[in-house]
Amino acid sequence: AATPPAQGPAAAGQARQRVLDDLPTFVEQLLAQAGANGIHVAHVTSAQDANRRIIHILREAGSTEILRNHALILDEIGVDRAAAANAIRITRLHAGDHIVELAGERGSHPLWPAAHLPAEAISATLQAKMRVPATVDPDLLASTLRMPLRRTLLRTHTAIVGLNFAVAADGALVTLDADGHNASLIALAQHLICVLSVEQIVADSADLDLLIAAFARGAWGRALPSYITQIDRPAPSGGDGPRRVHLILVDNGRSRILTAGFGEALRCIHCGACHNVCPLFQQVGAAGYGPAPYSGPIAGVIHPILLRPGLAADAAFLCSACTACGPVCPVGIDLPRLLQAQRQRQRVWHRRGRLAFWLWQRLLPHPWLFFPVLRLAGRRWRRP
Ligand code: SF4
Question: Does ipTM come in above 0.90?
Fold first, then answer.
């Protein structure tokens, strides 16, 4: 009998791996297809390049006020800081994002960034920042936030959106969410900048269906997301939707993750399922995994490579080796194995660090030797 097609995490994992195995080809295909659809495309290697491109587009459009969605890739590249540095006001439309920003905190869970804040803390933040009556009623808290955000939504015509997926075969750009904020942003924007990390490219619409189902299962335990928003091309004159659409594909360290042998981690679709079962994440939240944007077991694998050395060296050790994260991953990432491999890699780095410190102590009293060695080391360890 013929072997039945793979289902569930195995099939979704294969869909992700198909792209990772030949990433440059899929990047080229997506850029060509989206470009043919009338979307302005760019492929950048770093967060700085992505922000330069975004600021350039905003300046050209004369935009001084923009809205953004909830998207980890936007946190990763630090688009809020870049906008502020260029006197561009950026508002986060997602209520959870808006709350953590007002509270001066970082988001914790990939889907519910304010999940770590109790209602009392949210109420206190809103009272302090928005001068509203004290309440812990969730409906009142939500409507307190909603009104000013809606006013901003109605007067702002430029939006920046981190995508969930983009389809190489036809150039479709896709966002998923449970509250509809992506759909509102995209429907009302005249000018839309979409940002996608390269590994989230999907080969074709069949794989897209698989991965949308995988995301919904991991994120909300449902068959489908409440909102799937797809952009194929700019809206025609007189039609609804953005007239000008940009797509910026960002690498920002993905190639390093691939070459370090942790490519399987790039299958991650950031659904948050592993966070929900991780006893360490439940206790410490996002704080222990190094600076934003990622958290939970997947951050333990990718942060030590993605972030500057030392910033997240201990992230992989925030693990009790309970292995609960493995079975829940909807794209079949073997997180327990990758975390163990990352811990092993960090031990090697720690040994190298101790050796470097010993050497540094001995070289410091001899500047004539210290600086040439430092220059040599800099050349050796400087990132591409
Ligand atoms: S590693 Fe798997 S379970 Fe965790 S966020 Fe990524 S896709 Fe979801």
Answer: yes
How close is the Cα of 25 to the center of ligand 1, in Å?
25
Domain borders along the chain are: 8-93+157-255, 273-362
The rounded Å distance from CA 190 to ligand 1 centre is 33
Which residues make Cβ contacts (< 8 Å) with residue 262, sequence separation at least 6? 301, 302, 305, 338, 341, 342
- Topology given in CATH for the domain delimited by 8-93+157-255: Rossmann fold (3.40.50)
Residue-wise pLDDT tens digits, 199-257: 999 999 999 999 999 999 999 999 999 999 999 999 998 888 899 999 999 999 999 99
Among candidate residues 208, 140, 197, 200, the one with its CA nearest the CA of residue 170: 208
Dist. CA 218–CA 200, nearest whole Å: 16
Distance separating alpha carbons of residues 174 and 228, to the nearest angstrom? 7
User: Is the Cβ–Cβ distance between 106 and 100 less than 8 Å?
Assistant: yes
